[in-house]
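worker-03 picked up job from queue 'complexes'. Input manifest follows; two sequence lines, order preserved.
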Amino acid sequence: MKAFLILEDGTVFSGTSIGSTREVISEIVFNTSMTGYLEILTDPSYAGQAVVMTYPLIGNYGICYKDMESKTLWPDGYIVRELSRIPSNFRSEDNIQTILEKHQIPGICGIDTRALTKILREKGTMNGMITTNENYCFEEVKEKIKTYTCKDVVKKVTCKEKTLLECKGLRVALLDFGAKENIVRSLTKRRCEVIIYPAETKAEEIFAANPDGIMLSNGPGDPKECVSIIKEIKKLYDSDIPIFAICLGHQLMALATGADTHKMKYGHRGGNHPVQDLRTGRVYISSQNHGYVVNKDTIDPNIAEPSFINVNDKTNEGLRYLGKDIFTVQFHPEACPGPQDTAFLFDRFVNMMVVSHLDKGGTIRCPEIMI
Amino acid sequence: MSRNYDIEKVLVIGSGPIVIGQAAEFDYAGTQACRSLKEEGITVVLVNSNPATIMTDKDIADMVYIEPLTLSVLERIIKKEKPDSILPTLGGQAGLNLAMELAESGFLRKHDVQLIGTTPETIKKAEDRLEFKKTMEKIKEPVAASQVVENVEDGIAFAKEIGYPIVLRPAYTLGGSGGGIAENEEELVEILANGLRLSRVGQVLVERCIAGWKEIEYEVMRDSAGNCITVCNMENLDPVGVHTGDSIVVAPSQTLGDKEYQMLRTSALHIIDELKITGGCNVQFALHPTSFEYCVIEVNPRVSRSSALASKATGYPIAKVAAKIALGYTLDEIKNAITKKTYASFEPALDYCVVKIPRLPFDKFISAKRTLTTQMKATGEVMSICTNFEGALMKAIRSLEQHVDSLLSYDFSRLTDNELEKALHRVDDRRIFVIAEALRRGISYEMIHEITKIDIWFLDKIAVLVELEQRLKNEPLTKELLEEAKRLEFPDSVIAKLTNQTEKEIKVQREQYQIRAAFKMVDTCAAEFAAETPYYYSCFGSETEVQVEKGKKKVLVLGSGPIRIGQGIEFDYCSVHSTWAFRQEGYETIIINNNPETVSTDFDIADKLYFEPLTPEDVENIVEVEHPDGAVVQFGGQTAIKLTESLMKMGVPILGTKAEDVDAAEDRERFDRILEECQIPRPAGHTVFTCGEAIRAANDLGYPVLVRPSYVLGGQGMRIAINDEDIHEFIGIINRIAQEHPILVDKYLAGKEIEVDAVCDGTDILIPGIMEHIERAGIHSGDSISVYPAQNISKTAIKTIEEYTKKLAMALHVKGMINIQFIVCQDQVYVIEVNPRSSRTVPYISKVTGIPIVKLATKVIIGSTIQGLGYQPGLQKNADYIAIKMPVFSFEKLRGADINLGPEMKSTGECLGIAKQFNEALYKAFLGAGINLPKHKKMVLTVNDEEKEEAVSVGKRFEALGYTIYATLGTAECLKKHGVHAVKINKLEQESPNLMDLIYSHELDLVIDIPAQGYERSKDGFLIRRHAIETGVNVITALDTAYALLTSLENSENRTLTPVDIAAI
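worker-03 finished. Artifact:
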């Protein structure tokens, strides 16, 4: 069946419908990763967006459910050049066509994704509609497309109740704003006990669990929308518990401590972005997925200092909070998809928790986590 | 970290002559790196024995030594030039080995020279099998169970331990030379013994066989601060077992999930970090197809063929960045030259699919085994880019120029199912065509996979193409079907054949439906950033991104496609220089080529680069977008010449010599008329079409005669026939290669062969010099030792040659280059061949005379005159140097190939000897070609009956040099009769000890075997030559070559070689 992608500027791409045939309006963003389509589809940070894959051949290695980064698929729509008609990989349990249908995600294939990407690059991220209605009238849908915004997406993606993943190691409270599974895996691999909390959890409840550290996860949407969450995060900041934050978590911490964020022209989405550790000068290739960024000019030098910057556009990629056991990054050290080069940040976090734990006179229940 | 300003003068070591396994990719990398160094104000001293390269031009380096790559030569150059650093990572294995030797001997320390870009420790850790294994074990990176052995017994013992099949890899060799897979003890002994001999250190790695696993490569970069990135990963369609140089390779990997991709990427970075590489590195992995188990196969701590491919596939200039890193820069300080916005510390993202196919030389070596193994056999490769795999594969196939344009091009339809199944088991260059046939017959993916181990994903893609063939055959050609065929890059010609229409009709329908090629940009970043470098590929069903400039005059420069025997790197040299000259004259330059190994396909050589097949249809697609003011075809070898007619039909003016004049030189009758008009003699000859006509012609002329197809390069299909039987055989061979053109039969004259390159502006000609071949006529000019200036012809003959050259250039209305081959027989000058285009000898003659021939020719084409450019017309004064071009062969890589030289070219490369004295130049040339004698002072001499008398003097002179001469009965008796002592040795079929035992004694310096002219039917001679070559013994098959070697040896005692800086000429 034919499908159309209608952008808010009036550009129309026609291709073939994949997944669900229902009509959808969403924000169109592109991702340049060459592998990891399932991880991208299951990344909650894509809630409220339709994703364009710039790599043209998608679905080659099928679907392995173990690789899912959350329990379901999140994007509103999926836009590709070509879907492989058969999957081929020893781990493959399904193919991408079926999973899109199963999760009712509308998509389009067979379009010139490079031309689309260039439009988004030049004009900035914009809204669009995916439809199978051949008789669409742009003038009629124009306003609807233009005015679309994704509201309250964090609420949509966060867990409904807290979950405890027991372990003998350090206890980490993970605030789930749309956390990717690999954040949890990265912590449990390091013998941490993880308690996953819904996004709107009060700081007091977290303190009550007496965690050794707090993780603020990634997540979708405009960070400034999360007004009540930011308030709670300010309380977490005021405590002396070590905190490590990723992506949306990093933005929320910045907002909680007086800095500002803004929407980027077309964001960073892919697995090839170089970030530089400002203390050592080392450059790492990182996995990224964000449309908003902490405005570096609004960072109060008495509160935080930049720890990472993006080598390409010099935007802020991380902050270190002065006098606090808090560090936050814009990129994704948990990878999945993408390079694992910055996984050491989890070790750094664990170290920080160990030191803090010992400082407070605690003992380590599980000595092998000492790194 | 930043630029180290202590580095001011850098010695760059090139890779020497082109051989299988070490080809043009090092010219590309070397040229790019030298330019990158010069950009930084570094004084660059270059050493490379290969004169056909661009890197050995004075435009590229400050001092250029085209000298043999030996330790003593390098030491002399270092003493003379006093560089502060050596950059050894650009000259392939040869360069690294030399750098190691210089470092290990303490020479570098003594002369205060440092290695940059690598360290001896790094080289050792990566290249020495044992050290490598230890290093991998230390960092817990898995390698296949293996053991380094230094003798066959240990190999057998270890094989018993780990079980067959076993892989054998000799240490420090090229292209997997001497390696292979042994299925049993017998094979093990054979391959292992050979490998031990070929390894510089006498070591061979005996390894667990992981054939059938996925072969994956990563190209990684690291700087001195420890920053690491991967430029590209690649997946071989052919699983482990076929050398990656002979595999079909796709970038990026297609069948790896993110978990596998990242696992191997992390491993590659881990390895490069441990090896402390500063620059580029290639890591090859074997990945188990049904688990996460993997093995590190090999690490190349330098630029390589794969890095050249990765650079072209992604747009990331690895060699350039590696050179900057060697100077101390870190990745985040180096701008990405493509986007000019991002930095080198960024991993390219591809939004297309790249396919590389090797160019194998089996069309040249009909007797050679086509089987592909861990020993590389390809002479070159093609690359293509498309938005889908099928399209990229189709484009790559037709880029090969091997008369293939689709998966139907090799016809296996006559095989029975059983035979077909057997054919699937054969791992050779036609395997994908066999697979296509199997899929046509409905053989299941599972079964094909079971036999070939090729991933189902690739099989399905081949099936997509096969299904479309069927649809084209069976369905009406609707717009939708035509769109799909073009999306998958079926050429119009194939669509026409399958739909029973003409190509023209297909083209008309495409126009009607507006199905046109679109051009997309290679930008390193999948369109995330605006790129400034116009590097394009075509696809269908997309929008074009090409910005067509108006105003400037625009010229199309057609490249020469894949490197093959007969059409090598020298044509890339010419294309690049022509492009530069056009640019200097204010033209917008556009290059079309498909060879990832070359300088011409570097992103900043022309104003625009189209990475496309060189077929009329593909070129026309570009012409329709660019509307060039003209095209130049005379620099791109036969590939470009063949496009002349099509370009004219498209309305593109051919710049320089007109197409009809090119044709006149090739068309026998027209050419004969011209010769008659000019009163220039040529050996008598006839044009024929059938075997009967050929035999009549031969008898009319009298044997021996030369038989050859017209319109070929490198003497393909050319033979000397001595009787009717030969003619029968040759015509058969010629007709096997689809031949639309007539066959030429000429009287064979055994005279001196002379070669001339000249530039003609319509009024005057300029001849930079006259070259003389050491071997008499009958051996292809590309395989002959060529001497500049000619040493043995009279002044009158030279005058005549000059006069004939001018007459011919005028008569053919040449504008630009012309190449003429003459025979001087008893002071009579005959013309044997005229090519109104650039030739193989142009780079070498340009360098030794200091006359930039291609630049002059290009300017003449545009309208300048020779006198206007400041040159006196006519034959130029001899240069102060004698320069000798020596052919270099790769016979040891091609099992079963006959090494006997004849009219068909067989050499893969060349080196140069340049000196004030003839003898020194000759010695250097032999040395450069790796002939470093004497060693054991033992040799074998076998000569055919006709030339036995002549062989006596050869024997005498070797005897005088202290050689022990072994000869078979006939030759031995003849020698004895003339007072030369010879040890008689039994022929192969005779009882032991015979010739074979002698060869395997490893004490022979040389085998001189002069077979009879004509089609040699002696199996003996063939076997002797093969065994000698495979045991590393030098083999000579022409008496003239033997004389030259004697001259060189007789004058080699106490010689100190004087390096010549050709940049000062």
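worker-03 released lock.
Residues 350 and 526 of chain B are 5 Å apart (CA to CA).
The radius of gyration of chain B is 28 Å.
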